[in-house]
Amino acid sequence: MKVSVITVVFNAVDTIEDTIKSVIDQDYEDIEHIVIDGGSTDGTLDVIDRYREKLAVTVSEPDDGIYDAMNKGIDLATGAVVGTLNSDDWYENNSVISRVVAAFENDIDLDAVYGDIVFVTKDKPHGLVRYWESQPYKEGLFEKGWMPAHPSFFVKRDCYSRYGKFDLDLKIQSDFDLTMRFMVVNKIETQYLPGVMVKMRMGGVTNNRISNVVKGNLEAYRACKKNGLSVTPLFMVRKVLSRLPQFFRKPRYPN
Q1: Entry pTM
Q2: C-alpha distance from residue 118 to each of 86, 148, 152, 184, 246 (Å)
Q3: Which domains, from first to last, does the chain contain?
């Protein structure tokens, strides 16, 4: 089973190498790593060039934001299963992909799997900030602001063909919209794999400014309405509050 991993990058010269190496170091061999660069000017392309023979596809051109770049990667992917790993992120250990593949091979009806992620400080990879512990999906979770941690979300490629890719009208919460569309509206079969799969440096689009948090919550509310979920503006408060326990939990790591 081929797994496509899509990495979107723009001016991440200090971190992109960690991302690429964490894919190369996986103990599962049939991985297609697709890197979509938005036209970096800081030396990122020089780092990518050093690993070009290990990368299945490399594209460098302007895009209309992170979700446009992800859609480009999805269009280029040929794996049966597709995951995303952003340029500030890396896999927690070298068996993440093999664990994902084992789950799919054990259940032919499975459409997607997901696990946990940890947020770390930008300059200290072991400086824990938040532990995003997920859970098995059940009805009503999205209405409370829940979603699976998208960097840990691996889904069969044909789900994108059947149910659509990222909505480019949403600039911050298109991953919330997409997972809701897959899991709530189209009721794909999912499995939660407990334990940390990805480490993520703080500083993403949603996390780097208070204004983006507000805008992101408004987009999430719009996404709920778009997908037919019954929510009130109080949803935006619940979504923020749902994150607070993440700052106090102790991470769980797979055996």
Answers
A1: 0.90
A2: 14, 13, 11, 25, 9
A3: 3-247 (3.90.550.10)
